[in-house]
């Protein structure tokens, strides 16, 4: 993730992210450069593998997310 990216809020409701998208989101959550504080995933049908990837990102010490 670019250190110049200042994205703080991302709304992904109703878009059913794929496993690959969840992997990318997890890498954003783990990035020390990420400023993401608010991630909306309302009304999505996430696969188990996507949930596992996101969970790992949320558990990372670099994760700054405050609202999911």
Automatic annotation (TrEMBL):
<keyword id="KW-0677">Repeat</keyword>
<dbReference type="InterPro" id="IPR051261">
    <property type="entry name" value="NLR"/>
</dbReference>
<dbReference type="InterPro" id="IPR032675">
    <property type="entry name" value="LRR_dom_sf"/>
</dbReference>
<keyword id="KW-0433">Leucine-rich repeat</keyword>
<protein>
    <submittedName>
        <fullName>Uncharacterized protein</fullName>
    </submittedName>
</protein>
<dbReference type="Pfam" id="PF13516">
    <property type="entry name" value="LRR_6"/>
</dbReference>
<dbReference type="InterPro" id="IPR001611">
    <property type="entry name" value="Leu-rich_rpt"/>
</dbReference>
């Amino acid at each position: 993730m670019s250190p110049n990216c200042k994205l703080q809020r991302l709304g992904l409701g109703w878009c059913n992210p794929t496993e690959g998208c969840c992997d990318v989101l997890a890498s954003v959550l783990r990035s020390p450069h990420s400023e993401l504080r608010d991630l909306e995933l309302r009304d999505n049908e996430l696969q188990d593998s996507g949930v596992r990837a996101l969970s790992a990102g949320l558990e990372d010490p670099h994760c700054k997310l405050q609202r999911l």
